[in-house]
Amino acid sequence: MIDVVETDSGRQLFFLSTAGATLVVLVGDRRHVFVPYWGPRLDPCDVSYLVDDVPRASYLADADGAKDYKLEQLPQLYPSFGYTDLREPAFLLRQSNGSRTSDLKFESYRIAERKARLEGLPTVLDPSGAPAIEIILRDEVAGTRVVVTFGVFEEQNALTESVRIENVGEEPIVIEKISSSCVDLHRCDLDMIHLAGAWSREFGIVRRPVVQGTQSVGSARGTSGHGQNPFVALAARDADERHGEVYAMSFVYSGNFLAQADRDMHENVRLQMGINPFDFSWTLGPGETFQAPEVALVFSERGLDGMSQAFHALYRSCLMPSRFASAERPVLLNCWEACYFDYTREDLERIADGASQIGAELFVLDDGWFGRRNDSTSSVGDWVPNRQKIGGTIEDLAKSVEKRGLAFGLWFEPEAVSRDSDLFRAHPDWAIQAPGRVITTSRDEYLLDLSNPAVCDYLVDTLSEILSNAPIAYVKWDMNRNVTNAGSEFLPSWRQQEQAHRCVLGLYRVLETLVGRFPSVLFEGCAGGGGRCDPGMLAYMPQVWISDDTDALERLKVQYGASLVYPSIALGCHISDVPNHQTHRSESLRTRAIVAGWGNLGLEFDPARLGREGAEAVAREVDAYRRIRATVQLGKLHRLMGLDRGNEYAWMHVGEDGSNIVVCYVCQRMTPNSVSHRIRLSHLEPAARYRVNGCDRTYSGAELMNVGLSAGKIREDAYALRWVIDRVG
Ligand code: DGJ
Q1: What's the CA-to-centroid distance between 378 and ligand 1, angstroms?
Q2: Is 342 a catalytic residue?
Q3: Mean pLDDT, to the nearest integer, of 628-642?
Q4: Ligand 1, atom 2: nearest CA belongs to which residue?
Q5: Which residues 6+ apart lie within 8 Å of 444 measured at CB?
């Protein structure tokens, strides 16, 4: 809901309210624009005193020649560089006379009943319509207009914010920094929470106090990266899963990003997020505009659970392709860890047979089916099936898989090109490269320069042909390296710093076209596991392979961290072989199944290796998962234990109407003479009756929440339990 308030003194305020939060925008007396309030929901009132009441510090310059008008201390909507606020600005523009100073003043505002799509960018859009407000700011001297747009998603309890810069002057300007959101908080008793890791151990939760100075997370790798996810939360020191105030930002973007919190000299914190300004610039000619991607903003007064509920609801109902957001996903078997590059048609058919016998619904042919690819050294880019290896065309293979009662899925790595490939030999200039230097390889491949429209067209045409000629129900879209020695043969020298962002825009154009042409294909994003798991990709690919690590204990931590932002239905989680291929550990099938049952279940082994009893046991786990699938995929996730990164983890999914509940528990290490803790549930109806695991005895919701379930005696390392609970009255 957007309310416009005019105060008696003629000031204008905009109240942007969602289910549990309000953000207020204020036009000040001197037409600077502020955000005096972001917090629990507030009915419209005159809070303009919040800007007047700030005790002014010494030694700061007065803006506009007005005594004690200290912009540096005021919570500005979109702070600029070079005037009187010397904190980190939200944007930086270089004008043709060399000046970098800007000073934005209010020009006008516009309210739209329905938020519009951002051209060329993934956009959060409510199918039933969410309002938006544009705050239009102007720098008269530089000849620039800056439009800050908020989308208001009331039901999901989230806002979106994005920024557009228009060059309305006569001369070109160069954008050197453009944050998509910047919020000043008049408090500093906060912890910064973010997600950090590396390949195979993505999404570790990091929590650290916000101290004076800058603390940031980001990526300059070309993608959002394995290292740090484009998410940051500032949480009150006492905030936990259920309690406390949390301010969070999540970037709907898949390239280089920067999120940073600055605590200043006067104990205020500025939080901002946007395209990473490092090695970025964008030249904007007269009349041109630049649209930055959007940030989702969540304020929760119900701790991290409240924050996650908002992100999950927003991304599920307003970002993912809608046809997948509320449809149950198939149980897939991916053949990667079953055979890697080494297979024949017979092997694939044997694996598909086994897959259908244990209850899988989709068979995925991973890497190695094209060109001369029998290891990672060649052929990426040559998307021509190796007929000899796969025993015919993709269509033949897909049909033979379908005869076994399974849908067929296929792996691609479209953005890369092998050094040893026909594509690279034909178009060496299509690879990202710095002039005069050796093109650097990673996994024997280069990356394609998607800032070049011809490259994007080639990808669209090549993939369209394959997807049109065979019954392909699923695509695993992989991407296995970072951008190094960046440079484009296509772009002129003065646009080289635009390449990273132009590549992301090129990728979005390719995806938009393919997803539009093949709406029934389920795309799963992958970048060597979780190297590009971000909301930008979710807009096209409703499922992500969040880590190459399939070891249950490692996955537990990865999934736990990912769940801060991403809903369970977005997470691909597989039961793999033992000993595990990444950690060489062996966990029981039960534990592997319970952990993989957190999200969209997949299998990643050769069923023939299981033996009859093993296959029957897996089939029972798949069957058990299918019975809870709707609850897990379409319900709400609540984390119960594990935020302390201790020995025990527990989580629950509550089905859409609240009557089906699945609770899971894992104890990582058994220690002698220790006891497990009771698992107290949440989000049940206190007075309702619940039946646990089909037993006769029922419990009230209050009992389950206040007393909890017992994990009993821990019997082994990686000890896991699952309870299926039904509301019976
Ligand atoms: C990296 C992915 O993360 C794996 O799952 C697999 O698809 C390989 N690439 C194939 O090369």
Answers
A1: 15
A2: no
A3: 97
A4: 528
A5: 376, 377, 378, 418, 419, 420
**Ligand 1 centroid vs 598 CA: distance in angstroms?**
21
Phi-psi region at 109: left, alpha or beta (left = phi > 0; alpha = psi -120 to 50): beta
- Ligand 1: atom nearest CA of 526 is 3
Beta bridge partners of 148: 135, 163
pLDDT digits (tens, 9 = 90+) for 407-439: 999 999 999 999 999 999 999 999 999 999 999
Cα distance between residue 37 and residue 325, in whole Å: 33
pLDDT score recorded for residue 429: 98
- Smallest Cα–Cα separation from 249: which of 159, 128, 172, 363? 159
In Å, how far from its chain's centre is CA 126? 18
Element (H, E) at 308: helix 303-318
- What tokens appear for 550 in the block? 């399939």
What's 647-716 look like in SS3?
Answer: CEEEEEEECCCCCEEEEEEEECCCCCCCCCCCECCCCCCCCCEEEECCCCCEEEHHHHHHCCECCCCCCC
- The residue annotated as part of the active site, out of 305, 478, 551, 606, is 478
Determine how β-strand 571-576 pairs with β-strand 600-604. parallel
Which residue's C-alpha comes closest to atom 1 of ligand 1?
528
Instruction: Tell me how far apart the alpha carbons of residues 496 and 531 are, in angstroms, rounded to a whole number.
Output: 24
What atom in ligand 1 is closest to the CA of residue 528?
Answer: 3
* Ligand 1 center from residue 252 Cα (angstroms): 24
**Strand spans (E) along 198-268:** 204-209, 213-219, 231-236, 246-251, 257-263
pLDDT per residue as tens digits for the range 534-569: 999 999 999 999 999 999 999 999 999 999 999 999
Cβ atoms of 158 and 74 within 8 Å: the answer is no
In this structure, the residue with its CA closest to atom 5 of ligand 1 is: 548
- Which residues line the pocket of ligand 1, CB cutoff 6 A? 336, 366-367, 411, 478, 480, 526, 528-529, 545, 548
Helices 394-403 and 345-357 cross at an angle (nearest 10°) of: 30
Q: Could you count the other beta carbons within 10 Å of the beta carbon of residue 531? A: 29
Query: Following DSSP, what letter does each residue of 155-186 receive, concatenated?
Result: TTTEEEEEEEEEE-SSS-EEEEEEEEEEEEES
Ligand 1 atom 11 nearest Cα: 367
Task: Compute the distance from residue 363 Cα to the ligand 1 centre, in Å.
Answer: 15
Please tell me the distance between residue 628's alpha carbon and the centre of ligand 1 in angstroms. 28
**Does the annotation count 191 as an active-site position?**
no
Q: What is the C-alpha separation between 502 and 500, in angstroms, rounded?
A: 6
* pTM beyond cutoff 0.85: yes
The number of the ligand 1 atom at minimal distance from the alpha carbon of 548 is: 3
Distance (Å, rounded) from C-alpha 218 to C-alpha 227? 8
Q: Is the dihedral of CA 670, 676, 677, 683 positive or negative?
A: positive
